[in-house]
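_Backbone structure tokens_
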Amino acid sequence: MCLAVIDGWLHLSLRTVDRERNAGHIARNLGGRRGFGGGHQALAAAQIPLPSKNHNDRKIRALVRGLTGRFLKATGNPNEPGEPLCG
């Protein structure tokens, strides 16, 4: 999973070689009721609108932590800390 904040939206991209994990299903669950998500078994995406244009970094970090935890739980790795790819 990788993610970015762009124009008031949190964008997630999922890729896997393990088609049994079904990236599209995970993306739909991560998108939740507020956002959108979908895709296929090996690749998927989700977009979640941020609460307002005045969103602050602390709220975004909390949202990212929550989504990361849900992603790791969905992939069977709930105790993995995740690893940032860039700062």
Observations:
- The mean pLDDT is 86.
- The CA atoms of residues 8 and 53 lie 6 Å apart.
- The beta strands are 2-6, 9-15, 36-39, 43-49.
- The chain has one domain: 2-74.
